[in-house]
Amino acid sequence: MAVLTKYILMYPLDEEHSLAINSLTSAMDIIDQETRSKIEDMQSGIKNIESNEDEELYQQLMSRGYLFENAQMEKDTINRYKLVHQELAKRKIITNFTICPTMGCNLRCTYCFESDDQHINYNLMTDTQLDTIFKYISETLENSKEERIRLKGDTPATINVFGGEPLLKTNYPVISRILKFAEANGILVKIITNATTIQPYLGLFERYVKLLHLQITVDGNKEIHDVRRIRADGSGSFDQICRNINRVLDLGIKVALRINVDKSNIKSLRELEAVIKSNQWDQNPLFYPYASPVLDFCGVGEDILTEHELLDTLLSERLYGNEEGFIKGIVSPSIGFLSFFFDSKNQMKPWKLDYCEATSGSNFGFSPDGNITTCLTYAGKGKHTIGTFDENGVRLNEEDTAKWFDRSVFRLEKCQDCKYAFLCGGGCAVAAIERNQDMDDVVCSDIASTIEKYVFHIKRTILNQ
Ligand code: SF4
Ligand code: SF4
């Protein structure tokens, strides 16, 4: 007997039309109200699914993968996807490596996920540790060279430099070695910095302009930024960061301006826009401002914005998603995926079978305590590691690595019957660990409401297309 797949999502576009998404096959169709009602009747069992009831609809639903001849055929399709996913995961090419020179930091941002113990831990990555990391990166890239070029063209690998604050003055020898190694091996370097201590590095950066990219955070105008991103002595950091952004842009280095958004600063983003305009950063092609929601893995912070709330506000206020919106991107797992999914330029619609780079196997983070983590939330904390490294080399623990890298919606029990599974990826592993003490006991992502908001805001575009 024919079965309607459970992976159907439907959203109103106007009074007469709805958007149907088949999240199993990634098909998207505009349907009229009559068709929507018939599908809903089939879903609730009011209407018989067999072809003799409505031959034309039956054939259309069959051809678009909404209908399967029997339940086994749907299961077989899912199993085929699972095999493809496993095969691709085996051939996964690592092109992202993160090095934390130290976990210590000179700021005490109010929403930071690092503990106070970490903030004052200024242990620096040693030369021997760096030698091991460089050897590991070189070997990994060399071993995957052919496959990498075949799958990714000549897209270079990236070393992310994170912390703590990677540009503390004492870290200079480490940063200098990383840049030298990266240049010699054709690797890009992205430094995630609070930009308060950049000045001693400007001479060094000048030599590596082509491979460098800085991510710098500014959370609002001076008044707002200075109560969120404070120094250890309680003073603000806004003026110095703005001066340093200008210095770095003047050198010709790309700057991604990260704006961490929650309820306490979302209303003031226009004021940040004014700061950007007054500095003429918006005129500079090297400058890319993007928003990201402040995360709270325990889910208790009252200022936290969900992804759909963030998306809704930024689009409603025209701060994002149109020519004049000053925010050019949103970095968060569900919104990032949906921007790609709904982009009409992307004819191949992707699935999101795992949630983020921590579970997709594409990031390795090395911290000065000699541990390797895949999610940087745990960098330098000595827990949820996937391996260790020292003068004798890198040792990955197979079981721990598999816990992270095999975490996909195919493994997660709660996701088996979820119609959003292939667009969600199974939610944040850290949220599951912190709230449920088990990375497989999922905390649902905000995908359901985020799709609703996304479609609501782009419904005109969808209808026009
Ligand atoms: S995490 Fe929740 S929303 Fe995401 S696929 Fe699993 S059950 Fe569905
Ligand atoms: S596991 Fe969660 S915290 Fe870690 S990178 Fe993924 S989404 Fe971010």
TrEMBL record:
Cofactor dependency: [4Fe-4S] cluster
Signal sequence interval, chain numbering: none
Membrane-spanning parts: none
Residues covered by the Radical SAM core domain: 100-260
Alphabetical keyword list: Iron, Iron-sulfur, Metal-binding, S-adenosyl-L-methionine
Any Pfam family the entry gives: Radical_SAM
MF-aspect GO terms: iron-sulfur cluster binding; metal ion binding; oxidoreductase activity
Protein origin, superkingdom: Bacteria
Record-linked CDD domains: Radical_SAM
PANTHER family per record: ANAEROBIC SULFATASE-MATURATING ENZYME HOMOLOG ASLB-RELATED (PTHR43273), RADICAL SAM DOMAIN PROTEIN (PTHR43273:SF8)
NCBIfam families: rSAM_more_4Fe4S (TIGR04085)
The protein's name in its UniProt record: Radical SAM core domain-containing protein
Organism: Paenibacillus etheri
Species lineage: Bacteria, Bacillati, Bacillota, Bacilli, Bacillales
